Structures are given as structure tokens and as C-alpha cells.
């Protein structure tokens, strides 16, 4: 692979295009309107064709105006069908954008018969050819597509910076935004207008069919990785630029692996964005599974450790203060692997001490054991006296629930059971640290 200046400009154009789309796409994702970007990117086609047929001009201002009008019209029609026609929002988008897209294809074909307007370029993009159409700027030959997409990115960034608070409030809670004096409807249609203009600017780079990938996939990937809006926006911009770079690299290298000469760079940029999303989704799933596994292991270790403390406390309560061997504890708890690990953890935390004959409670371990046994016996008392269960059934439940009862719940159990001194098995209930206000 030989990297040339043209390749650099292709990546720059693709990155500017992807970043300008991703910047607004964050708010489409947050508003749960991802399909609106798809609808607008397809529905602006009749605006482009109608603008040319009415004016006979292909200049940027005319095209932007036609696209903006149809983009706002798309949003109005979707909202109208949703509110007045009581049609589900997704169905409303489908009706509007497919109808306008079909109309756009007809008008585009009609316009293409009279001018060198390539429908394929509008639909699929031609980012590979963008470095050939240059403008002299400060002594440099800069691709026109880079200037257009760069200006679009700057315009979108200025819009987000100026209306960051308004966009955030209207995206998360339109009713609150309206109550605070922010016109959520105006912000909505401003956003839709910019999405339409951004889609037009992106046509030359990625085409209308692929612009939805740049509008949604990088923001959706960022949304998987963070829940902070500022970080999400910044991360989506980085991922969009990375998609452009990886997409072009893949376009000039991957086809050769399978015996093909080349492929569409714009399409590979969208594929790269999807691949990054897949990696992020897989990584997040692995992180969630790993975190849940660690939490379960931690809870199991803590539960077995507390069972060890309770077993040592009950022996001490019965008058047997001799150290208990690890083998006896493993046999009593029937969880040999966890018991050995729990004993190591308790010794590390100085809750138990190892003596020649086995293990014994330390003062700190004794306090923990008292709290645990107190929770156990208060719960048994509650189930027997208040819920009407038998003592045998209550004991099995208390063996599980004792590990999740906190001080506040202890106090409430003691209050509801009348601050008992004995449990249903006539065993004393330890006072514990949460019994300071009890009679």
C-alpha cells in the first residue's frame, strides 16, 4: 500500500463529513429520533431536484435552500401524522420519508436528463474523487468538499455551543424546557434544518444512503460508553474521524485480500463505524458480565465470611471458647473452597486470629458477628411473631436475609417486634450498635 496526498485529503474530507454528521446525531440519539435522520437524509432528495428544476442552478445556496425546506417539511409532516393522525411515530417517519424519497428519485432522474447530475453520486457518494475538485485557498489547493464539510462542521459546532443548554434541556425534558422559557419546538425545527443541510453537504462525500451511518452510528457508540453529554459529544467526534480513517484504509487494502481491485471508500467508512460499534458493544457486554461476576464473587465471599463469624460466635455463646479448626468450619458450612478463602480474608481484615488449635474471633470480629446474629434473630422474630411463620421456616429464611439487613432495617425490625430480648428459639438477641435508642 502506497499512501499519497490524495489519500490524506480523502480521509480529511471523510472525517469532516462524519464529524459534522455525528455532532448533530448525538441529539437525534438522545431524542430517540434516530430514524428522523434517516428520513431527512432520504427526503431531501426532492428538495435538491426541485431546487434545480425551478432555478436551473446547482450552486450550493440553492441546493441548501431546497434541502432545508424539505427537511423542515419532513419534520412537520412526521409531527403532523403523529399528533393529528395519531399514527405511531416510527410509522409516520416511514410513510413520509419513503414517499418523499420516491418522489425525489423521480425528480432527480428528470433533472439528470438535462444536466450532468449523477444520481449514483447523490445516492452512494464519491469521496474518492473529492481531491480532484479543488479551490485555491491561501496558496493551497484545497478540495471543495473539504471546505464545504469543514464549514458545515463549524456551523454545527457553533450551533451546539450557542444553544448547548437549550438543546440539552429540550432533548431530555421538553416540558421542563418549555416551563423554563425555552421553546422546545423551535429548537427541534432548528435541529432538523441543520440535519437537512448537513445531509446535503454530506451527499458528495458519503451519499444520502450512507449519511445515516455517520449521523447515528458514532453517537450511538459513544452513548454505549458514557452517560455524560459533553463526553458523549467529544467521543462521537473522535469515533467519527476514526471511522473515516479506518474506512479508507480498509477500502484500499481489504479488497486485495479477496482478489478485488477496490471498493467504495464511503461504504467502507460506514462499515468501519459499524465495526467500531460492534467492538464497543462487545466490550461493554464483557465489562458488564465481568462486573456482575466480580460482584457475585464478592457477595459470596462476604456471605461465607459472615457465616464463619456467626459459627464462631455461636460456639462462643454456647460456652465453647476454644479455637475452631479450619476443617470443622469447612464441614459446618459445606463450602470448602469458599471457606478457606473467607478465612484468609477475615484474617487479613483482623476479624479472626489464627491460634495453634484453629481460629478465634478478635474484638472487631466479635462486633461484626453480633451484628449479623442480631439481624438473623430479629428477622426470625419478625417472621414468627408478625408474619405467622413457623420457627423452622423462619430460620431458613433468616440464613439468607441476614447478609443484606443493614442498620436501618435492624432498627425497624426491632421496633416492629417490640424490641425483643429473645428470638423464637429462646436465644438472646445481641444488643448491637443499632439498639442505642431501644428500651
Characterize the overall form. elongated
Question: Which structural class matches the secondary elements?
Answer: mainly alpha
Helix count from the secondary structure assignment: 16
Helix content, binned percent: over 70%
* Integer tally of domains: 3
Mean pLDDT comes to 84
Widest sheet: strand order?
Answer: 1-2
Describe the structure concisely for a colleague.
The chain has 439 residues and is mainly alpha-helical.
Question: What is the strand and helix layout of this fold?
Answer:
Layout: H1 5-30, H2 34-55, H3 60-83, H4 89-112, H5 119-124, E1 134-137, E2 140-143, H6 144-162, H7 164-172, H8 174-179, H9 184-225, H10 229-257, H11 265-317, H12 326-333, H13 336-348, E3 352-355, E4 358-361, H14 363-385, H15 391-401, H16 407-416
Antiparallel strand pairs: 1-2, 3-4
Helix pairs in contact: 1-6, 1-9, 1-10, 2-3, 2-4, 2-9, 3-4, 3-9, 6-9, 9-10, 9-11, 10-11, 11-13, 11-14, 12-13, 14-15, 14-16
Description:
The chain is mainly alpha-helical and 439 residues long. It has three domains: 5-210, no CATH class; 291-361, Orthogonal Bundle (Arc Repressor Mutant, subunit A), CATH 1.10.10; 365-435, Arc Repressor Mutant, subunit A (Orthogonal Bundle), CATH 1.10.10. The chain has 16 helices and four strands. The protein has helices spanning 5-30, 34-55, 60-83, 89-112, 119-124, 144-162, 164-172, 174-179, 184-225, 229-257, 265-317, 326-333, 336-348, 363-385, 391-401, 407-416, and strands at residues 134-137, 140-143, 352-355, 358-361. The strands form two sheets. The protein has a two-stranded antiparallel ribbon. A hairpin with a 2-residue loop joins strand 3 (352-355) and strand 4 (358-361). The longest helix has 53 residues, at 265-317. It is elongated and about 100 Å long. The N and C termini lie far apart (84 Å). Residues 435-439 have low confidence and may be disordered.
Amino acid at each position: 500500500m502506497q499512501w499519497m496526498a490524495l489519500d490524506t485529503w480523502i480521509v480529511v474530507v471523510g472525517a469532516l463529513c462524519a464529524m459534522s454528521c455525528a455532532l448533530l446525531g448525538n441529539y437525534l440519539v438522545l431524542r430517540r429520533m434516530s430514524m428522523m435522520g434517516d428520513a431527512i437524509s432520504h427526503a431531501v432528495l426532492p428538495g435538491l431536484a426541485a431546487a434545480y428544476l425551478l432555478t436551473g442552478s446547482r450552486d450550493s445556496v440553492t441546493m441548501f435552500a431546497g434541502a432545508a425546506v424539505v427537511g423542515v417539511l419532513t419534520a412537520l409532516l412526521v409531527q403532523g401524522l403523529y399528533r393529528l393522525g395519531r399514527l405511531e411515530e416510527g410509522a409516520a417517519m416511514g410513510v413520509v420519508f419513503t414517499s418523499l424519497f420516491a418522489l425525489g428519485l423521480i425528480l432527480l432522474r428528470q433533472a439528470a436528463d438535462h444536466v450532468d447530475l449523477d444520481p449514483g453520486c447523490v445516492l452512494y457518494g464519491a469521496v474518492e474523487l473529492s481531491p480532484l475538485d479543488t479551490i485555491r485557498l491561501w496558496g493551497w489547493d484545497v478540495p471543495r468538499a473539504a471546505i464545504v464539510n469543514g464549514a458545515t462542521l463549524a456551523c454545527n459546532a457553533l450551533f451546539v455551543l450557542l444553544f448547548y443548554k437549550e438543546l440539552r434541556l429540550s432533548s431530555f425534558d421538553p416540558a421542563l424546557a418549555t416551563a423554563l422559557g425555552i421553546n422546545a419546538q423551535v429548537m427541534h425545527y432548528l435541529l432538523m434544518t441543520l440535519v437537512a443541510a448537513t445531509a446535503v453537504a454530506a451527499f458528495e462525500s458519503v451519499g444520502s444512503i450512507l449519511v445515516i451511518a455517520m449521523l447515528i452510528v458514532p453517537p450511538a457508540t459513544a452513548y454505549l460508553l458514557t452517560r455524560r453529554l459533553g463526553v458523549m459529544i467529544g467521543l462521537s467526534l473522535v469515533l467519527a474521524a476514526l471511522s473515516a480513517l479506518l474506512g479508507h484504509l480498509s477500502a484500499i487494502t481489504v479488497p486485495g485480500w479477496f482478489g478485488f481491485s477496490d471498493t467504495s471508500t464511503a461504504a467502507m467508512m460506514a462499515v468501519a463505524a459499524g465495526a467500531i460499534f460492534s467492538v464497543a458493544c462487545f466490550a461493554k457486554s464483557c465489562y458488564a458480565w465481568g462486573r456482575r461476576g466480580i460482584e457475585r464473587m464478592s457477595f459470596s465471599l462476604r456471605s461465607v465470611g459472615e457465616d464463619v463469624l456467626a459459627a464462631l460466635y455461636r460456639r462462643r455463646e454456647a460456652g465453647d471458647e476454644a479455637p475452631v479448626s479450619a476443617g470443622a468450619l469447612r464441614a459446618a458450612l459445606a463450602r470448602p473452597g469458599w471457606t478457606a478463602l473467607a478465612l484468609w480474608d477475615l484474617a487479613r481484615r483482623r476479624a479472626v486470629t489464627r491460634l495453634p488449635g484453629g481460629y478465634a474471633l478478635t474484638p472487631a470480629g466479635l462486633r461484626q458477628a453480633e451484628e449479623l446474629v442480631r439481624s438473623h434473630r430479629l428477622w426470625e422474630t419478625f417472621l414468627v411473631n408478625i408474619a405467622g411463620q413457623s420457627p423452622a421456616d423462619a430460620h431458613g429464611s433468616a440464613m439468607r436475609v441476614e447478609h443484606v439487613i443493614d442498620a436501618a432495617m435492624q432498627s425497624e425490625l426491632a421496633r416492629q417486634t417490640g424490641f425483643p430480648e429473645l428470638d423464637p428459639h429462646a436465644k438472646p438477641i445481641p444488643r448491637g450498635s443499632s439498639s442505642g435508642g431501644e428500651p
